[in-house]
Design goal:
Elements: H1 12-17, H2 33-46, H3 56-63, H4 77-85, H5 103-119, H6 124-136, H7 152-165, H8 174-189, H9 196-205, H10 207-210, H11 216-219, H12 233-243, H13 246-259, H14 270-283, H15 291-307, H16 310-313, H17 316-328, H18 343-347, H19 350-353, H20 357-367, H21 375-378, H22 381-393, H23 397-402, H24 404-415, H25 423-432, E1 439-441, E2 445-447, H26 454-484, H27 497-505, H28 514-537, H29 540-552, H30 564-588, H31 593-616, H32 622-632, H33 636-639, H34 652-655, H35 658-685, H36 691-697, H37 705-728, H38 737-753, H39 763-774, H40 779-782
Antiparallel strand pairs: 1-2
Length: 783
């Protein structure tokens, strides 16, 4: 029969992870609790108010809005005053400390501000300083190495024409002006091809650059309930300037009531910004420090979701992000709303026309959370995956420099699917690629502190290193325990302590979960030893002897040991179960030892059944095989005892509840099928049977190897999605979420280890595991 061997790797990893040559000194990375607390408090304050940078570009367009009562009087003179008071030292209007590749952005904002001042006949000094800035940077207008804000080729030439109407001479080369006007004319005349609707949305979005040539009836079809065009103050201001729409004016006035005498480049953004903040904290592994604040955000978002809030459902990125964050946190959200963002719909939207990588990334991430009966959601996966891959291959040089964070996110998401990405490894990657620059670029650049903050990175690095220092000590303890229990004397057994500990620490990393990690790791080591004992190391007499000893639970009685091997294994299992029983009092207020003994007996008896099948050359039915094999896969002793050490109290009734038993069965079945699929060829060569070979045997020769493999890949996918539903859905569930998470953690471990073959063998993964435990992160190197 197939070896009961679950998900274990070659022994090389143990020596690698515990390399004594490590030069790391824990003390170097400790941060005072005062600094840690201070960083947390600053982040908590970010939940209270979303800070959006004001946009000189959009403020200029609002400043150009005339009074409804007199076209020669500004409707918002306070915006004109803001422009007069906020010119930068170099003569430009833009975000301070701008990126060297954002000169076109500065030119666009500066020209808009100059036009606003010229329109109302004020600020001659500021106008002249602005013109000097344009003169000094005029070469950047046609520089293809410079980043081009959205709509620049329409908006900037449009402003040049408006400057002519105002008799304003711009210090630009006539050849450059003519070239830009021709390019704008060509773009306005082009049809848009298959993406006609997306092009119309784009033209409405850049309405300020089209002006009198705009089809305003078409553009106003995109007006939102708040009166804006795409939540864009500049486009909305242009609409009011040309057609005096009352709702447009209402939107602008509401902005100024909120922000004072200047406006941002996009509003509202609160829901997306707060969800992005929650997403960042979760992906950096520091969300546990902000549970109260995050709960408030999620409850509010869910209320908006149920109300059909336009701010969520009119934007694909916000909708997909809300769906993903809410579903992952146990809220009941339907994917039906995401089905509106099909490939056809998206391609005919503003985001599709602009090839919005971030929006498709959010859609792709949301697709990975589909349940078994959500086929429409799953059908979105191919096109979103293709779109992201194309986006990576088509990144321009300047785009790559300005969008390195989103490019890194896309790369990681494609290479590490949600169900095969260990949280601790993902956290380390995210920290290394963390965006501490909160700048985004639309028609102009803007900043939002909730989207990117150095405090996120500081806290994440401090937290990572604190957890890591604890994990290093725990790994040393595991090594000493192996020697003390004489497990290293069993030459037939693989030495897997570091590997087993890694699987625990990669998902259960919070300091307070030390007991859960130690239970997981020690039982992982023991199941490896026992697996090898039943597979190659023990006789049938020894196997039966071990089971009988566990059944009697005799602490001494060495005369009953039929061999030294049985004595070592039994003593190690006995001491570990006793330790779990003692610790369980602190967590559960009761001794759970009898339950853990039963878990171990179920495993040993299933392994004995398989050993007897192999000895007798029996060929069980596939159903008989899976009934035994999902238990012999040996996840029971690893996962089930750890449930008692993650926080919630579990009564005997809950510990034996059908829901928990189903979680265990689905997890173990998924793992067994993964193992048998990946090890099929090797075990066939060794003359061993497993699920794949039995499926072919009982198919009477009608099933090919390729058909069998595809069949089991489908079963694995179904089991995984079923597990996701069991873990995330809270309605009718009696098992606490922290406990259910352990089953999903194991699913992720299994998919990670079986991603390429039948074990955790690649040098790349070994190096990643070593870094996770032994190499602290330096904050100075990241800033």
């Amino acid at each position: 029969m197939s070896s009961s061997r679950p998900w274990f790797c070659p022994s090389s990893i143990s020596a690698t992870l515990t390399d004594p040559a490590s030069k790391l000194v824990t003390g170097e990375f400790k941060t005072t609790s005062l600094n840690f607390h201070g960083t947390k408090e600053r982040i908590k304050k970010m939940f209270d108010k979303i800070e959006l940078s004001v946009s000189s570009y959009d403020t200029a367009w609002v400043a150009m809005v005339p009074s409804p009562n007199c076209s020669e009087t500004p409707c918002f003179p306070e915006c004109t005053k803001w422009i007069l008071d906020n010119q930068l030292g170099d003569g430009s209007w833009s975000l301070p400390h701008r990126h060297p590749l954002l000169v076109k952005d500065a030119l666009s904002s500066t020209l808009a501000c100059i036009l606003a001042l010229k329109r109302w006949g004020v600020g001659e000094e500021q106008i002249n300083k602005g013109l000097r800035f344009i003169d000094l940077n005029s070469d950047s207008v046609m520089d293809n190495e410079q980043h081009r804000p959205i709509g620049f080729d329409i908006i900037f030439p449009g402003m040049i024409e408006y400057a002519r109407d105002l008799d304003l001479n711009l210090p630009l080369k006539p050849t450059d002006i003519n070239s830009m006007l021709r390019r704008r004319d060509l773009e306005l005349r082009s049809g848009g091809g298959k993406n006609l609707e997306g092009r119309r949305a784009y033209l409405a979005y850049v309405s300020e650059g089209i002006g009198k040539l705009q089809d305003w009836e078409m553009a106003m079809k995109y007006q939102r309930k708040n009166g804006s065009l795409f939540n864009s103050p500049s486009a909305t201001a242009a609409a009011f300037i040309h057609i005096q729409d009352a709702e447009c004016l209402h939107y602008i006035r509401s902005l100024l009531q909120k922000f004072g005498n200047a406006v941002p480049t996009i509003y509202p953004l609160d829901i997306y910004a707060r969800l992005s903040m929650v997403d960042a904290l979760e992906s950096l592994g520091i969300d546990r420090h902000f549970r109260k604040e995050i709960k408030i955000v999620l409850d509010e978002t869910y209320r908006f979701w149920l109300q059909g809030e336009e701010e969520i459902f009119s934007d694909s990125a916000t909708c997909a992000l809300a769906f993903r964050i809410l579903r992952l946190n146990g809220y009941d959200v339907s994917p039906d709303t995401l089905n509106q963002f099909s490939e056809h719909h998206f391609s005919n939207s503003l985001g599709g026309y602009l090839k919005d990588l971030r929006a498709v990334l959010e859609l792709y991430r949301a697709m990975q959370l589909s349940y078994p009966d959500e086929s429409l959601l799953e059908k979105q996966n191919p096109w979103t995956s293709y779109f992201l891959k194309q986006g990576l291959s088509n990144v321009s040089l300047c785009g790559d420099k300005l969008r390195k964070n989103i490019i890194g996110e896309v790369h990681d998401t494609l290479n590490f699917p949600y169900h095969a990405d260990l949280q601790r490894l993902a956290i380390r990657r995210r920290i290394k690629n963390c965006a501490t620059d909160d700048m985004r670029i639309l028609k102009t650049s803007y900043c939002c502190s909730a989207i990117g903050s150095q405090d996120f990175l500081k806290l994440a690095v401090e937290d990572f290193n604190i957890c890591q220092s604890i994990q290093r000590e725990e790994l040393k303890h595991i090594g000493r325990w192996v020697v003390e229990r004489r497990l290293d004397k069993l030459k037939f057994a693989r030495q897997k302590e570091a590997y087993c500990y890694f699987s625990a620490a990669a998902t259960l990393f919070a300091p307070e979960l030390s007991d859960a990690r130690m239970s997981w790791a020690k039982n992982g080591v023991l199941t490896t030893v026992v697996d090898d004992f039943f597979d190659v190391g023990g006789s049938e007499e020894e196997l039966v002897n071990l089971i009988q000893l566990i059944e009697r639970w005799d602490a001494n009685g060495s005369a009953d040991f039929c061999s030294e091997k049985v004595e070592i294994i039994y003593s190690a299992i006995h001491s570990t179960i006793s330790e779990i029983g003692d610790k369980s009092f602190r967590w559960q207020g009761r001794d759970v030892k009898s339950h853990v003994i039963k878990i171990w007996l179920d495993l040993l008896k299933s392994m004995l059944t398989e050993a007897q099948w192999s000895s007798n050359k029996s060929v069980p039915t596939l159903e008989e095989y899976m009934t035994t094999a999902h238990v012999s896969f040996a996840l029971g002793p690893i996962v089930l005892p750890a449930l008692y050490f993650v926080g919630p109290k579990l009564s005997e009734e809950v510990a034996g509840h059908p829901e928990l038993l189903n979680l265990y069965k689905v997890m173990s079945t998924c793992g067994r099928l993964l193992n048998d699929w990946r090890s099929f060829k090797r075990e066939s060569e060794e003359g061993k049977l497993n699920a794949v070979s039995l499926y072919m045997i009982h198919g009477g020769g009608a099933v090919t190897e390729e058909e069998a493999v595809e069949h089991f890949k489908g079963l694995i996918d179904g089991q995984r999605r079923q597990m996701l539903r069991l873990v995330l859905q809270e309605k009718g569930s009696v098992i606490p979420r922290p406990c259910k998470d352990l089953f999903w953690n194991m699913i992720k471990i299994l998919h990670t280890f079986y991603m390429k073959d039948d074990g955790f063998t690649s040098n790349e993964m070994i190096n990643v595991a070593k870094a996770m435990i032994n190499e602290p992160i330096s904050l100075d190197e990241l800033l």
